[in-house]
Amino acid sequence: MPFNRSVIFYRVAERIVPLMTFLMITMPVWLSFFHPAVAAYLIMAYLLYFIYKSIKTIYFAGVSFKIMQEAKQIDWHERMQQVGHSDNVYHVVMIVNCKESFEKVSKTLEKLVKQSFDPKEVIVVLAMEELEGEPAKTRAGQLICKYKTEFRDLFTTFHPLKPGEEIGKASNAAYAGKIIDKYFQDKKIDRKNILVTVCDADSQLPHHYLSYLTYEFLRDESRQYHFYWAPVLLYNHFWQLWLPVRIQMILSSVLRLSFLSMKDDLIQISTYSTSLWLLHSVGFWDVDIIPEDWHIQLQAFFAHGDKIRTIPIYLPIVRDGVRAEGFINTFKSRYAQERRWAWGITDIPYALVRAFETPQIPWIIKLKKIGFLIEIHLFWPTSFFLLTLSASIPSLVNPAFGRTVLGFLLPKFSSFILTISSLMLIAILYFDYHVRRQIKIKTDWKNIPLLIVQWYLLPVISFFLSSLPALDAHTRILLGKKIDYKPTKKI
C-alpha cells in the first residue's frame, strides 16, 4: 500500500473482525455454560437489531423506489441543458474487462451509443489485461473497428501485472486511469472537468445516465469530492438464472435500492463515476487489493476527510446475474463471487492503520466510518447462525436454564421476530416486481407460483451462498491465506 505501516499492528487489526465473527457464532454455546441469561439477552438484542435493520431497509427501499419512479419520467438531457456549461464536462467511460466475450462488451457499448448525452462527446477506454494475450488483442481490434466512429475516442489499455499487484479490477483500473490522466494532460485539459465512469463489462447504463450524471455534477458545489452511483441491479437474464442465484439477486437488488437513499452511509458498488481530479489526488486505485469500490472511497476519505460523499443517481444500471454451464458450475462461481465480495473485510485493517496516520480528520468521523465497515462485515457471516440456531442453544447446553421463564420465552421471541421478518418478503416481492417492470423484464402468470414458493429455500440459500463464503473469507484471513481473483462466469 502507498503508506508505511506497522506490520504487527496491521496483522493484529486484520484479525479483529474474523475473531469477533467466531466469538459471536459460538457465543450461545460457551457463554451458556456459565451465564445463560447473558447469552439469552445478547441473542435477543441481536434479534431486535435485525428487525430494526429489516424495517429500515424496507423503508428506504420504498423511498428510493418512489424517487426512481419520478426520475424515470424526467427528460434529464433537457434538464442538463437548462443548467448550462455541459460542454465543459468531458466524459470517460472505462470498461474494465478480462476474458469477456465480444458480444457482452458490445451490448455495453450499444447502451453507450444510445445515450441521450451525445456519444460523440464520450471517450471510451477498454481496460484489459495483458496476461490474457492474443485473444484480448483480437477482441479489442474487433470492438474498435465496430465502434470507433461512434464516440469521440475509443482506445484500449493492456495492464501488465507487476510484482506486488493483485490481479483484478483495482490494478487494471489504476493502470488505465494513469493513461487516461496522461491523455488529458497532453491536451492540457483540467482534471476537475473530467468525469470518469468505471464500468464492468456487463454494465448496461440507462438511456439518460450520462445526462443525469452531468446534471448532478454541474449543480454540485462540492463535485470534486464526490462519487456518483446508480443502483446496480443484477437482473439481466433474470428468468434464465438458477433459482438460488435468482433469489439472491432479488435480495441484493432491493438492498442496493435501499442503500441509495441512506445518503450518509452510501458507498458506491461496482459501477460508479467520479472526477479525474479526485482519482489523481489519491494516486488512483491501490493495486494490492481485490474489491476496489469501497476501498477507493476509503482512500479518498483518508485523503480529504468527510467532504467525501457518494451522490445517488436514481436510474437503475442492469448487470448480469451469475450463470455458468450447469447448476454446479453456477453454484461454484456464485460462491466464489460472494467470497470475493466478503474479502472486502481487508478494508478494515487498512482503515484502522490510516486512522492513526490522519490526525487532521476528527476521530469521531473516522470511528463512524470504521464502525460501519465492521457492522457490515461482522453480521454478514454471523446472521444465519444467530437467526436460525442461537435461540435454541442455551437450553440445550444448560437444561436448567430451559426451565426458567427466560429460557422458555427465548425461542418463542426468536420465532416471533422471524415471522415478522418473513412478512417483509411481501414488500420485497412488490419492489422486485415493479423495478423489473421498469427495466422491461416481464413476469408471466406461470412464474408467479415459483416467485412465492422459492422463498422457502431462503435459509438454505443464505447459508451456502452468503454466510458460508463470508465465513470462508474470514477464516482465510485468520490463517494468513489469500484468495485468487477469478472473473465471474456469466454466459
Automatic annotation (TrEMBL):
The keyword Flavoprotein does not apply. It comes from the Bacteria. InterPro entries: Glyco_trans_2-like (IPR001173), Nucleotide-diphossugar_trans (IPR029044). The chain crosses the membrane at residues 33-52, 370-393, 413-431, 452-471. Residues 196-429 form the Glycosyltransferase 2-like domain. Keywords: Membrane, Transmembrane, Transmembrane helix. This is Glycosyltransferase 2-like domain-containing protein.
